Amino acid sequence: MEYYAGKSAFQGIAIGKITELKKKDNQVRRNRITDIDMEKNRFKNAQTEAMEQLSKLYERALKEVGETNAMIFDIHRMMLEDEDYIESILNIIETQQVNAEYAVAATSDNFSQMFASMEDEYMRERAADVKDISERVIKILKGTDTSADILSEPTVIVADDLAPSETVQLDKSKVLAFVTRKGSTNSHTAILARTMNIPAIVNTPIPQNVHGKTIIVNGFDGKVIIEPNENEIKECTILIEKEEQKQKLLRELKGKPTITKSGKSIKLYANIGGVSDIGAVLQNDAEGIGLFRSEFLYLQEQDYPTEEKQFQVYKQVAEMMAGKKVIIRTLDIGADKQIDYFNLDKEENPALGFRAVRICLSRENIFKTQLRALMRAAVYGNISIMIPMIISVWEVKKVKEIIKEIKEELSESKIPFKDVELGIMIETPAAVMIAEELGAEVDFFSIGTNDLTQYTLAIDRQNTKLDMFYDAHHPAVLKMIEMIIQAAHKNGIWAGICGELGADIELTQKFVDMGIDELSVSPAMVLPVRKKIREC
């Protein structure tokens, strides 16, 4: 028996044989060539084949893990078409008269080092993407298999790390759990594991060469046992049965009201990133959508999405939700979500910089396009608009002025539209302190606890070195949440939570005691939170 501890990326428990995925030997030799044109054509053909593979991967991911998670393959396709990347490869082939494999490998090293040295975290993450697309092209050039469909029976996947393309290619019906020696809880593999509802542990110091051994993976405490004894296997089997029973009981909560023992009704909504997530919303019986992250619509495009494009997406969501509340957050770009075509300046501190409503009020044409699409789509369902990153009353008044202008324009053009509820996200200490004044201007508050915690504690939530200092349960954060709820109720409006704390069942009773009206969580957490509320 061997015990190892890592970081839990997704809860759950599994037992099975290990399939150890090892990186194939992609060592590239530097060979001198004589036919430069032929070598360039070899690269171009491999690039074309890689693009086709990525398109298939995108379609597969779209079906299995949703549009938001499939976007990584769109990013890979864009990177593979990047002019600088292609020119570097062709230039190395021509000037050094070397084989295409070597030119791709050299370019991969150069570009990944460049990205890794950047200050912006989003750009640093692109280093792994460059390596991933380059390895794909090299495999095609070498004629080696790029498929990961190697699983013949249910198994636990163990690897140093997994690229998104490797994760998606695996037959998820045969994956019992993921265990990686590297990676973080925010890695693409961890996110995909959560979406696929598969137990996952990262950063686990498992030794090499464990293929075929029996393993217990406990995603609840982040621990694994290799070659467990009979007692441990028996205990694990009992835990699995208990978890299955727990899920069965949760499913019995479908259709039941989200109401406390004392009779208080709580709205229980779900957070989504795109239309493809609605299946999970309906499957888990959410009462509406409390946060539609509209920026993902922008992130997956190569240019500003048109009014018509946005209208069709918002209309589809409204129709699919069949009259249930759909709260759509307006564009929240900036900070860790950068888009090339926005041409945003590099900032020393992007989390405190040009982002969200600040971009919208500075570039009104972009904002108006989105608002027009939203108000037109509202005709087809129950849409509300939510503005992020508000810190001042004048910002809200300016937004309302713009909305008034749009209504007049649509009326003059005889274009059908519907007036909608207007809410704001409270996610800064400044907004908390003037919440009563803000509440007089809007129809509801939604508390963005992720940023509220970050700004209140003065801690970058993406900096893993600060994990020991980051306390989402900090008394100051909880006090601010209570202040926001009180300010909302003084103005006769409702207050909800759409950040990660909304799904923290350790705090559910406290939120109920504070008087919270709504909680919006990931679709998978709807039933567990409903169960907890019904026990309050």
Explain what you see.
With 536 residues, the protein is an alpha/beta fold. The chain has 3 domains: 110 residues, Glucose Oxidase, domain 1 (3-Layer(bba) Sandwich), CATH 3.50.30.10; 107 residues, PtsI, HPr-binding domain (Enzyme I, Chain A, domain 2), CATH 1.10.274; 283 residues, TIM Barrel. The protein is built from 19 helices and 16 strands. An 8-stranded mixed sheet has the order 1-8-7-3-4-5-6-2. An 8-stranded parallel beta barrel has the order 9-10-11-12-13-14-15-16, surrounded by 4 helices. Helix 13 links the parallel strand 12 and strand 13. The two termini are 42 Å apart. The model has no long low-confidence stretch (mean pLDDT 86).
